[in-house]
Amino acid sequence: MSSMNTYRRESDRIPFGVECALPGLPEPSRASHQRRPKRGGMRSFGVLLLTIVFILGVWQIGRGIYIYFKAPVAQGAADKKA
Predict the structure, then answer these.
(1) What is the helix, strand, coil percentage profile of the chain, to 5?
(2) Could you state, in order of their start, the residue ranges of all structural domains in the chain?
(3) CA dist., res. 63 & res. 65, Å (int)
(4) In angstroms, rounded to a whole number, what is the distance separating the alpha carbons of residues 40 and 48?
């Protein structure tokens, strides 16, 4: 009995969709199977630092907008417009 024609399912023998149009492709290279190196500690630290700086910047802008609009409302300028 030939092991080349031994399939577990009939669907393995019948190509569907895109598989029919694809030519035989070579195996992927060894480089594509190798794991990518992990990120360095300094790079992770830099991303963390940039994230903190961004959050603090948004916080400061939000505080500035709040203070800018708080004064006229506290003095009742919104009531005088009507």
Answers:
(1) 60, 0, 40
(2) 43-75
(3) 5
(4) 13
Report the first-to-last Cα separation within the chain, whole angstroms: 94
pLDDT in tens, 68-77: 988 877 777 6
What is the Cα–Cα distance from 71 to 11, expressed in whole angstroms? 73
Q: Token pair for residue 19?
A: 């598989």
CA 11/CA 17 separation, integer angstroms: 12
- The DSSP secondary-structure symbol of 9 reads S
pLDDT tens digits, residue range 19-58?
566 666 677 777 777 777 776 888 889 999 999 999 999 9
